[in-house]
Amino acid sequence: MSASPAINQQRYGKLLAKTLPVIIEKEAQYKRLLHEAEKLFDKGEDNLAPEEQALLELLVHLVQDYEERHYQIKAADPRTILLELMEAREVKPRDLWDIFRSKGITSEVLSGRREISKAKAKALAEYFHVSVELFI
Predict the structure, then answer these.
(1) Cβ 98 vs Cβ 120: under 8 Å
(2) What is the predicted pLDDT for the residue at 1?
(3) Which of 82, 81, 76, 70 is nearest to 107 (CA)?
(4) How many other CB atoms sit within 10 Å of the CB of residue 120?
(5) Is the dihedral of CA 87, 92, 98, 103 positive or negative?
(6) DSSP codes of every residue in 68-125
(7) What class is the 78-135 domain?
(8) What's the CA angle centered on 5, arms 51 and 38, to 5 degrees?
(9) Phi/psi of residue 90, each to 5°?
(10) Is residue 106 exposed (0-12), middle (13-18) or buried (19+ Cβ within 10 Å)?
(11) Which of 17, 61, 62, 93 has the most CB atoms around it within 10 Å of its CB?
(12) 0.70 exceeded by the pTM?
């Protein structure tokens, strides 16, 4: 493993003064620093000076920290996953009647009044060609 090149403190200081990285608290700061990081990404990793690489690492850390605090993806429940799969694959409720063995049960599952049983989760997984864990 090779040692990273030495950073010229003066050049790095100028980059910091120009970019003004801060702990991101507002959307405008997020967009500004994300734009600065994208400009460095666009240059290509092999074309970055050591000072630019250090700045990019700092910006990525700041942006990721903000995203983790503000853009958390919530885990979807089995019903939501089923509805998304149905929409994406243009599956109609009647297409699931054989799986649920009833129009009524299909309707109850899709409306959220009934949970998806383990047996039906397996059948849905086979039907959609996905992991059974999505429906459990």
Answers:
(1) no
(2) 41
(3) 82
(4) 22
(5) positive
(6) HHH-PPPPPPHHHHHHHHHHHTT--GGGGHHHHTSHHHHHHHHHTSSPPPHHHHHHHH
(7) mainly alpha
(8) 35
(9) 55, 45
(10) buried
(11) 62
(12) no
Place of tokens 């990019």: 56
Q: Which residue has the tokens 């047996």?
A: 119
Whole-number Cα distances in Å, 35 to 19, 72, 115: 10, 21, 44
Q: Which residue has the tokens 């460095």?
A: 40
- Where exactly are the structural domains of the chain? 9-70, 78-135
Q: Which amino acid is at 76?
A: A
Residue 4's pLDDT is what? 60
